[in-house]
Amino acid sequence: MRPPHRQTTADGFDMRAYRQSKIAFGLFGLELDRRSRAHGWGVTSNLAHPGVAPTSLLAADRISAAARTLPSSA
Hints:
mainly alpha; Short chain dehydrogenase
């Protein structure tokens, strides 16, 4: 993994940093599991990806993004 290089989208979202954070999360979980097994800690490491959860957060973000692109009425 490399240090994040800012590549933001028009709405300010940094997709590269997001992808790297998901990779880091996976690597951490796998390494925790490996070490737990090697040292007999009895810790179980489970990784889960929630996918896209249908919440009002996504809708609110789309609405705010749309509002930022509307021409001002002034």
